[in-house]
Amino acid sequence: MENQYRIIETAAELEELVNEIESEPVLAVDLEADSMHHFREKVCLLQMATPRSSAIIDPLALPDLSALRPLFANPKIKKVFHGADYDVRSLYRDFEIDVHHLFDTQLASMFLGIRETGLDAVLQDRFDVKLDNRFQRKDWSVRPLPTEMIAYAAGDAVYLVRLAAELESELRAKRRLAWVE
Fold this sequence. Notes:
Elements: E1 6-8, H1 11-21, E2 26-33, E3 43-49, E4 54-57, H2 69-73, E5 78-81, H3 84-95, E6 102-104, H4 105-111, H5 119-127, H6 147-158, H7 160-173, H8 177-180
Parallel strand pairs: 1-4, 2-5, 5-6
Antiparallel strand pairs: 2-3, 3-4
């Protein structure tokens, strides 16, 4: 899957993105923070993908992400995360964003009995996709970010929509979907 994304750094670009996404049924989300490099951690990049598009939001260039609150609160849009706990807490801590209608692909993987539930392992097994994790522990607060780091970040969210659909179907067949929901 080719990963084409756009970078959002202005309020106008964010508003345009919100207008596009508000009619989507599903939104995959991931974030990068600087927790390994700073005592007071913060979200440094927010990746979002729908079945049709992918965007990287830079909260260091655009610290007011309040325009995203209605998207994340909208119960008609399923928000897909992998290992949601940290990301959900970080979004609330930094931007007062509450997440409603959440689907966690890591939790879904656990309820399906998958042994290795890290995103890299699940994507390798499901789609034969190997994520380039060499940027995982980098300081995401340093600007400008190299193109390779941004592409790495975008890659984490782009497969989540498809992964969620597969896992949801398997959970439904095993009558375990309600457990995850």
